[in-house]
Design goal:
Structural class: alpha+beta
Helix content: 25-40%
Number of domains: 1
Number of strands: 9
CATH class: Alpha Beta
Shape: elongated
Radius of gyration: 16 Å
Oligomer: single chain
CATH topology: Aldehyde Oxidoreductase, domain 3
CATH superfamily: Molybdopterin biosynthesis MoaE subunit
CATH architecture: Alpha-Beta Complex
Largest sheet: 5 strands, antiparallel
Length: about 150
């Protein structure tokens, strides 16, 4: 059974990953993406220190796109089940922002699918990340930051 959700609640990595494990699988690969303190700017190379992160999403479309990602992954890789759960709202440094868990008969496909899913999630799903610093803030991911703040 596949799972894709958005939530403002803390993420339980083990509970999420265990929800997608069928008996025919021999491997589950789980990504725990969490808020990190230091980020290097891709253009300037400057390292910035974040105080916390804020995630916002266009929720109906984000959920629809997450479901599409799972279907595409199942078409591209020999996998059985997928979970994608992304947290929204304010996250402190070290808190989990996204869990992706891929169950497959063999680990090679699970690893490849998990890597592909996180890359495509960041590229195509309307979820935006704002890094908040002592001296300001900056939208980091997503095609365009949201026009209206959800929080």
């Amino acid at each position: 059974m596949d799972l894709f959700e958005l939530t403002t609640e803390p993420l339980d990595i083990t509970a999420i990953s265990r929800r997608v494990v069928p008996p025919e699988c021999g491997a589950t690969v789980t990504l725990d993406g969490y808020a990190r303190r230091f980020t290097r700017d891709r253009v300037t190379g400057q390292v910035r220190e974040a105080e916390h992160l804020v995630y916002e999403a266009y929720e109906p479309m984000a959920l629809k796109e997450m479901g599409k990602l799972i279907e595409r992954a199942k078409g591209e890789f020999e996998i059985s089940n997928v979970a994608i759960v992304h947290r929204l709202g304010k996250l402190e440094i070290g808190e989990t922002s996204v869990v992706i868990s891929v169950a497959a008969p063999h680990r090679k496909a699970a690893f490849a699918a998990c890597e592909w899913i996180i890359r495509e999630l960041k590229r195509t799903v309307p979820i935006w990340k704002k890094e908040v610093y002592a001296d300001g803030e900056e939208w980091i991911e997503g095609a365009d930051p949201p026009a209206v703040s959800a929080g």
